[in-house]
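so the lab meeting is tmrw and i was supposed to have these ready like two days ago... anyway. pasting both below. for each one the top line is the aa sequence and the line under it is the structure tokens. i havent really looked at them closely yet so no promises
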Amino acid sequence: MSGAIEQTPKQREIWAVLQQRAEFGFADLAEVGVCSETATEYLRGWVELGLIEQHRAQGTRRLYRPVALRAETALPGERDATPEGNMWRAMRRNRRFTVTDVACWANAGGVQVSVGQARAYCRQLAAAGILRLAKRRPRKGAEHVYVLADDLGPLAPHMRRVRAIFDPNGRSYRHADGAREA
């Protein structure tokens, strides 16, 4: 299941039951008829897809919870459909893609993503080392193929512009919140 989008009917049935619970573990999967090896595969896959996270440990038992139940720690808009969120989820699920792929996959949930938006986002993530080019020079007319090099988790990374002052003496930056331009 790792990195896969499609789930079997059994996986969907189990997921529908588990996402209604505040937390669950291997024992809960066994209750719904899943052997331990398959349970490990399902849990790893759901963690990789960003659907669940390890919530806490109880002795040697790990307990997980659906990511959607983190409302108390979520920032406003984190779970809303956004262009960056849709593109990031598509990249995490597919791992290898072109800009056009990302734009197509991200047009969901009432969000429209253009090829230009996807290209800009891919370039930003590549510049930060989160994506890398799979092929340096594609054949003429072909698009670059990107690979997800650093999966940062379920929340989409965002480009931020920060005003700062560089001190060449100490080779450091200081945040310039509220500073006026000279």
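ok protien two:
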Amino acid sequence: MDRDIVKADENKDVSENITDEKYVIWLHEPVTFEGKKYDKIDLTCLEQVRVADMIAVNRKLANEGNSDVVQENSLEYAINLAARASDLPIEFFEQLKPGPGMRVKRCVMSFLYRQG
């Protein structure tokens, strides 16, 4: 799967990126994945997501048999979008315990449905 984020402007100033803590999920218990320990999941990368990325996730899930009417409200959609936006593979998100997994979902949904 191609996980590159569609970039609207390759020369965009890095200082414009959101560094807001609301997109950083601190883990109560560190998660070990592929030999590396993670004490947080940084999803500030969601700011780089474009509609083309969302469509790609919708198509991927539909091809895998996901028939949710509103896919973007599902946990599966949230972790796939988080994986597409971040440098972490989908397997990282799939192995999370329910608590951190649901925090990822809430973070992604909060990003998608924010005002403005």
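from a quick look at the 2nd one: The two ends are 31 Å apart (CA to CA). The chain has a mean pLDDT of 85. will dig more after coffe
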